[in-house]
Amino acid sequence: MAYTVIWWAILAILLFVPPLILWRLFRANWIWFALGIAGYLLGMTAKGILYFAGQALNLSTIPVMPQAMVVGISSAMTELAAAALFLAWGRRRLGDVLAFGVGVGLFEIFVAMMAGWDEITTTTKTHTSFSEFAHAVAFSFLVERGITLIGHTTSRALVYVFFRTRSRSLPAQVPSLILLVRSADYSGRRICGMAGWA
Q1: Which of 48, 82, 125, 171 is deepest in the core (most CB within 10 A)?
Q2: CB-based burial label for 145 (10 Å; 0-12, 13-18, 19+)
Q3: Environment class of residue 32 by beta-carbon count within 10 Å: exposed (0-12), middle (13-18) or buried (19+)?
């Protein structure tokens, strides 16, 4: 019983504390949480199109590691490109930029939970209780989701930083470009298998 209560309490902290902090301390506008989700869904749509394009090009016939690299990087870049459509124009408050990424992370938590719950229910062919779900996914789910939430938030913030610091001088763009590439690399690694329930 104690395990279940602690697990769900930590989940509640993940779901409610970040947006409350952004709202109260950074004056984030709630619309940016929704825009983050919209950007994520747009990126997922583009990702699906790329997946079918890869199937048409017989991407599945190449070795596993290069295949994982192609899928991971293209997946990360579609997510970040979709975010750029919302973050590249005009000045945004810090709270709004962070809310954009937090919205993505919170939405992914919800999606991962629904997918996990459905998988457990389908496998066991019985109704899954709150306690059974918490024990099935364990604390590793919460740790991974917390790390992923941070990753989504920082990667979207770096997209904004890249566009806010760009200039016509290529050398001046190098630092922000490096940050953006590192962000894409992190996202690609997460998508390629470091995340357990993504």
Answers
A1: 82
A2: buried
A3: buried
pLDDT at 180: 59
Number of domains in the chain: 1
Taking residues 147-176, report their average pLDDT.
Answer: 76
DSSP class of 195? -
Q: What range does the domain containing 61 cover?
A: 2-194
Model confidence band, residue 74 (pLDDT cutoffs 50, 70, 90) = confident
C-alpha to C-alpha distance for 176 and 163, rounded to whole angstroms: 8
CB 2 within 8 A of CB 73: no
Which ranges of the chain does DSSP label H, i.e. alpha helix?
2-24, 31-56, 64-87, 94-124, 130-165, 170-189
Amino acid, single-letter form, for residue 102: V
- Pick the range with the lowest mean pLDDT from 52-56, 108-112, 146-150, 186-190: 186-190
For residue 197, the model assigns a pLDDT of: 39
DSSP string covering 24-60, please? HTS---THHHHHHHHHHHHHHHHHHHHHHHHHHTTGG
